[in-house]
Amino acid sequence: MAKNSPKTDDEADREVEKTSEQGITPLAEEPHANGQPCQADFSSRQHFPSVPDAPPDGPSAHPLEIHRASAYSVAQEQVTRVAKVMNLDEDMVEYLRMPRRELIVHFPVVMDDESIRMFTGFRVHHNTTLGPTKGGIRYHPDVDLDECRALAMWMSWKCALMNLPYGGAKGGVIVDPKALSQNELRRMTRRYATEITPFIGPEIDIPAPDVGTNAQIMAWIMDTYSMHKGYSVPAVITGKPLGVGGTVGREYATGLGVTYVTRAMLKRKLGKNIEDATVAVQGFGNVGSWTARTMHERGARVVAVSDVHGGVYHPLGLDPRHLRAYADQHGGVLGYPGADTLTNEELLELNVDILVPAALEGQITAENADLIRARVIAEGANGPTTPEADEILNDKGIMVIPDILCNAGGVVVSYFEWVQDLQAFFWDEGEIRHQMERKLLDNLDEVLSVTLRTGHDLRTAAYTIAIGRIIQAVKLRGIYP
Ligand code: NAD
Hints:
This protein has 16 helices and twelve strands. By secondary structure, the protein is of the alpha/beta class. It has two domains: 9-53 and 251-409, NAD(P)-binding Rossmann-like Domain (Rossmann fold, 3-Layer(aba) Sandwich); 100-249, Leucine Dehydrogenase, chain A, domain 1 (Rossmann fold), CATH 3.40.50.10860. A seven-stranded mixed beta sheet has the order 9-8-7-6-10-11-12. It has a five-stranded mixed beta sheet with strand order 1-2-4-3-5, sandwiched between helices. The longest helix has 26 residues, at 429-454. The chain starts with 8 loop residues before the first helix and ends with a helix. Nicotinamide-adenine-dinucleotide (NAD) binds next to α2, α9 and β7.
C-alpha cells in the first residue's frame, strides 16, 4: 500500500512510541494515579470485550433505561431534519427512511438442563445502493426490530460518510448473554447464525460485533456459516480473532478511532491539546474501555468511567488499564480502590472537557441536556443524543462529534478485515492504523469544510455528506426496473 502521504498525527506519536503485541502503545509500569501499584498486565493478553452487565433487577430497573428514547424515532427524525436542510424531495425522504429488508427469526435452543428455550432474533438491511450491507450483532434484553432498523440506518450513513462500499445493517437477539452458560451461548449463536445464513454473506451482508457480542462469537458465526457452505468463508463476518482471519487492530479500532477524531476536533475547533483535557466515559465495554485507554495513553486525564451498575471518579485521573483488569475480575468498575462512586447521571453532568457516551442510544435527551457541562461530546455509542438534546447542546455551545464520524474507526477497520479476507493477504498493524487514521481524518476534514461553508453543526454536515453520496449513487443507478 502506498505510504507516501504526509504524516498523520498518530504517526508522529509513534516515532517515539513502542508498539505492543496488541498494537496499542504500552504504558510503562507506572504507579496508579491514586498511588497504587499496577496489579495486572492488561497489555499482554488477548482481551475480548465483556458482555454487557445486566442490572440486578433486570434492564428496566435502571433509571437510564427508563429515559431511553426510541432509537428508530430518533433516526427517522434526524433524516427528516437533514432532508429539510438539503431540500430533498418527499419521495426520496420516504425511500431513505425505510429499510430494504427485515428478517425476524424465532428459534429453539437446548439449554444445559435439557429444557428447550425459544429465542427471537433480527437482521435488518437498510440500504444496499453502495454495496453489501455491514453492521453489528447485538445481544441484549432490549433488542427489538425498531432498534435494529435505527442502528441499520445509522450504519448506512456511517459507511457512506467514510466512503466505504457498503450499506447499513444491524441484527441482534433478545437475550442477556451473561445469563447463559458458555455452551448455551455457543449453541444459541450457532442456531441464530443458521437462521440468518440466507441473509448474510461476503457479497450480501457482513456482520460484526456490537453490544454483548465479541470476537469469540464472531468466530462461531464464521464457523457455522462455513459449515453450511462446505468451505471456510472468513469474509462473511468481521471482528474475528486473529487466528481465523481477523485483522490486527479490530478489537481496539472503535475506541482508538474515537480518540483520533476527538483529538483532531479538539485541536482544530478549540485549539486545545488532548494532553490538557479531562475525560468522562459512560460505558466500559469494548468502545468505552479502549477510548479511555487510548486517550489516557495520549496524555488525557480520564477522571470518571461507568458501566451499567454505576461509575467511579477520581479528580487526579484513573488508569484505564488497571480499571479494565479490576472490572474483569469484579464484574464491573464499582468498588475500584481509591476512587469515589458516582451514578451514571452524575457522570453525564461532570464538568469535564470531553464526555464520551459509549454505552447505549438515547442517553442524552431533552431531560438532561441542559445539565451537561462538558465542552465536547464525543459519541462513542450509536445514537446516544436525541435531536431535541442536540438543539439544547448547540444553544449551549457544546460541540457534539456525531457517532457516524466519531465511532467510525470500527467499521473502517472491519472493512480492512473484509478486504484482507477476500484477498487472503494480510496487512501489518502500522498499515492498519495509518489507513484508519487517514480515512477518519480525511472525512473529518470534509465535515469541517461543510460546517464552514454552511454554518451547520457537525451532525448536520456529516449527514449531508453521507446522504448526498447515497442519493448520487441512487441517481446514477436509477430505481429498478
Ligand atoms: P459492550 O457490550 O462491549 O459494552 C457496553 C458497556 O455499556 C458495558 O460496560 C455496559 O455495562 C455499559 N452499559 C450498558 N447499559 C448501560 C447504561 N444504561 N448506562 C451505563 N452503562 C451501560 O458494547 P460496545 O461494543 O462497547 O458498544 C457500546 C456502544 O458503541 C453501542 O452503542 C454500540 O452500538 C456502539 N459501537 C460499537 C462498536 C464496536 O466496534 N463494538 C462500533 C461502533 C459503535
